[in-house]
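Hey,
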Amino acid sequence: MCGRYSTPQQSEAERYFAVHLLRWQFERSYNVAPSQSVPVIRSAGGQREGVMMRWGLVPFFAKGVPPKYSTINARIETVETAASYRGPWKRAQRCLVPAAGFFEWHVDGSGAKQPFYIHATDQPQFGMAGLWDSSRHEDGSVLESCTIITMPANPLMAEIHNAPGKQRMPAILPPTALDAWLGGTPAEALAALAPYPADLMVAWPVRVRVNSPRNNDSTLVEALAG
């Protein structure tokens, strides 16, 4: 699962991901939460386009109304068959969700949940694999939205995100896999998805202030002292 993350600066994302069609505008967020408008990169006419979308996919058949069930994450095991995602998958509506890092919660022996901040050591920022869709309201307006693909956790993430049945992680793409995910065949896109190597990731405990999406400042990604 991936339920919170942080974004890079817009200018940094544009340079790093070579985004040429600039149809987005955003400030860096240290605590992105579901249902918020988030920066997304997709392919448009062979170029990378930066747009803003709702985090939490609203299927095209939903008439612009967010479903009552969670669609912030799509499991890799069912992305080709689940009702909400099989349409975007068949239409190759794949995207990147740029991130500086993400949060997960560790459950200790007493049942308390400690948030951790995780990021890649070999990339200053990274793209999480996602799908996007558009859904038309009855008034004719169109809502574009996205979901982040998750997969079984690597050893580091399994230790942190340790709640039974929830040992998952976002599908983080290496730079060499971005083109295959955005513009490759379905087989090439699936082959680009693999658990990111644990030895290329680092994590540390952070303040529980991140539990509230109302809090959004740089201290949320700082390691706890001691």
